[in-house]
Amino acid sequence: MEAVWDWFLWLYKEYGINLSVFYDSFDRKLFFRGFLNTIWISAVCVICSIILGIIGAWVQGSKSRAIRQSVYWYIQFFRNTPPLIQLYFFYFALSNLLPKIPNADGVLAPPLSNFAWAVISFSFFAAAFNVEIFRAGIEAVPFSTIEAAESLGYSRLRSYLNIILPLAFRISLPALNNNLVNLMKTTTLAYGIAVPELMYVSAQIWSDQANVREMMNLLLILYIGLVAVLIYGMDKLEIKLRIPGYNIGA
Amino acid sequence: MLDASKVKIAEDFSKMISNKKIGVFLFLSIALSIFCGECIAAGSEKSGVMETVLKWFPLIFTGFLLNLLVSVASMTIGTIAGVFLGITQMSQIWAFKKIARLLTQFFRNSPWLVLVFYTILVIPFEIKLFHYVVPFPSWIKATIGLSLPVMANMSEIVRGGVQSVPIGQWESAESLAFSRFKTMWLIIIPQCFKRMIPPWMNLYAILTTASPLISLVGINDALTLTRAALEAEGGRIDLLLPMYASLLIMFFIYCYPIAVWTVRLEKRYAEKI
Questions:
Q1: Can you give the residue ranges of every domain in chain A?
Q2: Which chain B residues have a beta carbon less than 8 Å from that of A190?
Q3: Which of A107, B135, B191, B255 has its C-alpha lying 20 to 30 A from A52's C-alpha?
Q4: Could you tell me if A23 and A9 are in contact, meaning their C-beta atoms sit under 8 angstroms apart?
């Protein structure tokens, strides 16, 4: 491995391309931790937003008009306001409303870290879009299927979990794929509250080493690579979930 | 020139503004902010929260106008560039098609913040052409940065729109000896223009909600000015919620009508098929 890092040092000395995240061990560890943090925050946000989207899509079919209207205003609020300002609102404004508890050092601090607030904010943001996507999928399930479930004695919740949701999920996979890619790109906003993900550690590194151009290019390549991996995974999932005779948009 | 469809769109818009939902939400938002302010100010002896928010509102509103300017400017640049990129994506010259596809996929899948940082840090702050000096203030660089993903998304919208035109149109044009260029400009594009408007408006809404990104690169937009106002007030904790909430409400009041209008246009254009 030393040979690889030395090659990057040679690249810097010979051509002036300063990729210190490879030859410098401190920058290397920092950058790698940032990369893992980005993957971790994306994964947690993806899972949370899908769960919230499923719950929201079910609540949207509720009989009570008040509940349906609240879901409508939740979606409109999170879709029509900037995610960065939502993040700041959650982290600065809401965090100060919570009671302070002693943290590990015994200092009174808000109970949730900036990582947790970033996850909460992005999950709610992506879930608002997911509720719309799942709703479109649910509406595409043939009504005769739902009637058949009702006639077999399925309750609303059971028919949602066992019959409607599996079909709706498969139908909405392309739109969901698009939204999850957007979510992965939105996680860069956590830079604003100093979460040590890829964007933030890159900013630290280029402030130290003055290699902005190289770091920017590396960032672009890495993010596009991550998005490509996500799209590849979702495509594989779509193929695996295919129901024979029920191919949508095949 | 006032024709039937334009009058209908204007009627639509005025109906939407007098819509019950908008009235309800405006009332609720104003009531909520007054309520929050009174609750918090009731127990504090410092100057009232609502007064402070209203005192800073004019300054923050000018920052908000800069946000809107950046969003409109980068939407314009992005739309024009995106239309050309989209049409190039369907070119019959293989090299152009591949390059256009590559550019589209590249800028679509990059985080917007990274692109903004890229343009801010890489474009020089002024360019010297012979003895003319063209200044590039930060907000123009950020506008260019934001117009790159808009261009890529617009190119996808154009590609989707053109591909949704029935193939019979292409065949008829070919049988009538239309050249490829004439087919595109005279037959296909006018037909898919209407279909592209709802996704285009959706893209504008996304861009407007992405415009506060420019505050992270140091431009004095609404978010930077809000934070500066909070600092100037001495970091009072009871001001945090109302100031950020008023910023959210400002963006909401601008973006929600656009969203409602988009849904209405989608429904109307969907019927005509």
A1: 40-197
A2: none
A3: B255
A4: yes
Q: pLDDT tens, position by position, for chain B (273 residues)? A: 567 777 777 777 666 655 666 667 777 777 777 766 666 655 555 568 888 889 999 999 999 999 999 999 999 999 999 999 999 998 889 999 999 999 999 999 999 999 999 999 888 877 777 788 888 888 999 999 999 999 999 999 999 899 888 889 999 999 999 998 899 889 988 888 888 898 999 999 999 999 999 999 989 999 999 999 999 988 888 888 899 999 999 999 999 999 999 999 888 877 654
Is B111 in Cβ contact with A185 (below 8 Å)? Answer: yes
- All residues of chain A having their beta carbon less than 8 Å from the beta carbon of residue B221 are none
Interhelix angle A65-79/A114-139, nearest 10 degrees:
120
Whether the model clears a pTM of 0.90, i.e. scores above it, the answer is no
Q: Do B121 and A185 touch (CB under 8 A)?
A: no
Neighbours of B134 (CB within 10 A): 10
Neighboring chain B residues of A191 at a CB cutoff of 8 Å: 113, 216
User: Closest partner residue to A80 among B118, B223, B259, by Cβ?
Assistant: B259
Cα-Cα-Cα-Cα dihedral of A100, A104, A105, A106, to 10°? 50
* pLDDT score at A248: 54
Please answer yes or no on whether B259 and A199 come within 8 Å at the CB atom. Answer: no
- Token readout for B265 is 């246009």
Architecture of domain A40-197: Orthogonal Bundle (1.10)
Mutation choice for B interface testing from A68, A74, A80 by most B CBs within 10 A: A80
Distance CA B35, CA B31 (A): 6
Closest approach of A8 to chain B, Cα-based (Å):
23
- Looking at domain B58-271, its CATH superfamily turns out to be MetI-like (1.10.3720.10)
Q: What is the mean pLDDT of residues A159-169?
A: 90
Smallest CA–CA distance from A212 into chain B, residue:
B121
Side chain identity, residue B20: K
DSSP 3-state percent helix, strand, coil across chain A (nearest 5): 80, 0, 20
Whole-number pLDDT of residue A101: 84
Chain B residues with CB under 8 Å of A94 CB are 241
Of all residues in chain B, the one with the smallest CA distance to A94 is B241
The answer for A80, left when phi > 0, alpha when psi is -120 to 50, beta otherwise, is alpha
What are the residues whose beta carbons fall under 8 Å from the beta carbon of B233, sequence distance 6 or more?
A: B52, B239
Q: Are A218 and A21 in contact (CB under 8 A)?
A: yes
For residue A202, which amino acid is it? S
